[in-house]
Amino acid sequence: MGLFNKIFNKSTDKNLEYLKFMNGFVPTFSKWNSNAYESDVVRSVIHCIASNGAKIKGKHIRHVEGKLIDTKSNLNHLLQYQPNPIMNAYAFQYKIISELFDPNSNNALIYKQTDGFGKIIGLYPLNFGSAEFLEDTEGNIYVRYQFNNGKRVTVPYENVAHLRMYFKDDDVFGSPSAKAINPTLQLINTTNDGITNAVKSSAYLRGILKYTGIQKPGDMEKDKERFVNEYLSTENNGGIGALDSKADFIKTELSPKMVDAEQMKLIEQKIYKFFNINESILMSKYTEDEWNAFYESVLEPIAIQLSLEFTNKFFTEREIGFGNEIIFESNRLQYVSAKTKVLLIEKTAPFGIMTINEAREIFNLASIEGGDKRILAVGGEAKIIGKDGEEDDSKNDKE
User: Alpha-carbon dihedral of residues 213, 218, 221, 226, nearest 10 degrees?
Assistant: First the structure.
């Protein structure tokens, strides 16, 4: 059995028709075929967002009597280590975010593979060419995918987590943004071509040999080659050429016009603005405030979408009612100086907000045994608080 058939072992061939919308919208989607991702500026921006967003950590938790409990379910292994046999968790999230921000798509779909008992055993980002939304006579929704290799598959929409950007014009899919960004990309390509041609032109015509008399075509060619080889080559260390009275050398002055650095920067800034990012983030020379702004405006919305979609598609209403939830933590993303880290712990310690391991994680230190207890500072004295919120007398006596 091939990987395709192994993944989509529950594809359906039921009699289906297009999903009906009140406004008559036909729920079909095809990716754009622009070269936006081939632009070095666009690719570097998407890579920056995806590589940082891929550090967000997915986790299956449960809310029990007002407390958050980390589970040891199979979902945690899929989310944090290996969602499928060919990807680790970082590559999985990198691909999702890259697809989401690709101007040709602005949609990311993740197929939830289950076994015969409904247990989730794999998560796969879908790199499809087109998709159609269908329904059966009972109102169940399906998605039919056409892949680039020509294969088709139809799966229940409840098995697909769907992230989207620019969700306005379409009732189901986010709108591809390639059309909006193409004018700027064409301007960048034209500018790059101009620079290339300017460099090439400097190596073309350097001067003209003007003969005072009539010369045979063959003789003119030989004289030109001799002059170039003897006086315009790098071997002419003296830098001086000599001509007899039958010819004059007239030097040509070429002044190719190019876009200056400031204009080029303004053009690239249009791309940064389009993706809501700045050069400091892209070049990894950001301050704390710049990083926090990038996180809140770009990365946090991704984490929220992932959390909501995965929770709704991975659990039934009953399971959600019992407190099951998928969250994406940003503790591996926070960028703060050592001074700010110390100040953070100093200010929060009196309230018992952090556990010992959470405080250690801020300083990139490994967890320790018993580190799930919180530190509470009261009257200048530190006390250890257990999971139940009660003071850990044995630990405090020992201390």
Answer: -90
